[in-house]
Amino acid sequence: MPSPARFAGRPVDAVVFDLDGTLIDSAADLGRAANRLLDEEGRRALSMAEVRSFIGDGARVLVDRAMAATGAAAGSAALDALTRRFIAHYEADATAATTVYPSVPETLAALRRTGIRVGVCTNKPQAATAAVLEALGLAGMVEAAAGGDRFPVRKPDAGHLLGTLDLLGTPAERAVMVGDNEHDAAVARAAGTGAVLVTYGYARKPLAEIDVDARIDRLDRLLELLGLSG
Ligand SMILES: O=C(O)COP(=O)(O)O
Ligand SMILES: [Mg+2]
Hints:
- Mg(2+) binds at residues 18, 20, 180.
- It contains nine helices and ten strands.
- By secondary structure, it is α/β, with parallel strands linked by helices.
- The chain has two domains: 6-25 and 98-225, 3-Layer(aba) Sandwich (Rossmann fold); 27-92, DNA polymerase, domain 1 (Orthogonal Bundle), CATH 1.10.150.
- The protein is elongated and about 55 Å long.
């Protein structure tokens, strides 16, 4: 069944979402895991503003930024070990304080009802991504989820989004990427999909400086953008 959805004059068969800052507000659990690690290392805790600004490049970069912000930066070998410990802390309790943003389940369900394929392309590691989607009741609405360690490259490299679209069986010109930061915008541009920015996430740059086709303040506004509401 051809999809009735259209964006920027083109038919849309798939929408790929970023995870942290777009579908889920996960900063509190990522921050708890980071602060537990820092405490073990005898370092100070991060503020929530720091945590939010460190999210978006995967676990290893988050730990690297956390160490650099609280004293001496870690060397590469130490960083590998610290990242493993951070991920263990995170996975031990990944959703206790994590919430799904308003209108997310309804929007994903509405897309699926229209026959649109739904993917997730996140720099969060694959195992944690799968566990979090399951725990928050979103797994059944996502046909393919690609974490930051699923392919040899990750966002903002086009290969991460193109790999996710391969799993969905959708060419880039019939897809839209929805995310919260500059990497999501850049990966959409590099892959050739439509680009939509949510304005409530963890962007590290002024939103006006991020090049996208549209900005939305709630996820269900996407349905209007795709001509699916009402
Ligand atoms: O930094 C992370 O772990 C993930 O961030 P993302 O879901 O926004 O890609
Ligand atoms: Mg994000």
